[in-house]
Design a protein that fits this description.
It is built from four helices and ten strands. It is of the alpha/beta class and 159 residues long. Strands 3-2-1-9-10 form a five-stranded mixed sheet, with no helix packed on it. A five-stranded mixed sheet has the order 4-5-6-8-7.
Length: 159
């Protein structure tokens, strides 16, 4: 069984003690971290590099991160093809927009809407971990994907 920590929309300009605590508590036994964009600062990205991180840029990431990270990517992890993209536009219709970004994937991890989501479209699972920082609602979540014979997805509230 492989365990993947999933983040999006951290919206942090620096690494805080709270961020360190959240990751050490919730991701202590993950093998890989996927970040679906809006990291915001290189300092935060470099801290995430303490893990095996697979990240993309989001609409709030500046030129520095855009020079380091792709807009989207496909990773083969545990025999599964996982597409990662931030997403764009209004929350309504975001699932169709991220679906149109990929072909031949098993999972699409996305962010942008700040809404924790798990849905299936045919054979493709769409997973949005929600936002680590969500000023509009205050609801903060991260995600875990477990890959084995089956795939499981979990949203974890951040206190």
């Amino acid at each position: 069984m492989m365990k993947i920590g999933v983040l999006s929309d951290t919206h942090l300009t620096k690494v805080t003690e709270e961020f360190r605590s959240i990751l050490s508590a919730l991701f202590r036994d993950v093998e890989i971290i996927i970040h679906a964009g809006d990291i915001v600062s290189r300092e935060v990205y470099e801290y995430l590099c303490n893990w095996d991180v697979r990240a993309v840029t989001g609409n709030m990431d500046g030129f520095e991160l855009a020079g380091l990270l792709p807009n989207k990517r496909v990773e083969v992890i545990g025999g599964r093809r996982i597409g990662v993209v931030h997403g764009k536009g209004p929350p309504y219709g975001i699932e169709q927009r991220v679906l149109s970004e990929f072909t031949n994937v098993d999972v699409i991890v996305f962010g942008h809407s700040h809404v924790p989501t798990l849905s299936r479209h045919g054979d493709v699972a769409l997973f949005n971990p929600g936002a680590l920082r969500n000023p509009s609602t205050g609801v903060r979540t991260v995600g875990i994907i477990e890959l084995g014979e089956e795939m499981s997805f979990k949203h974890i509230p951040v206190k």
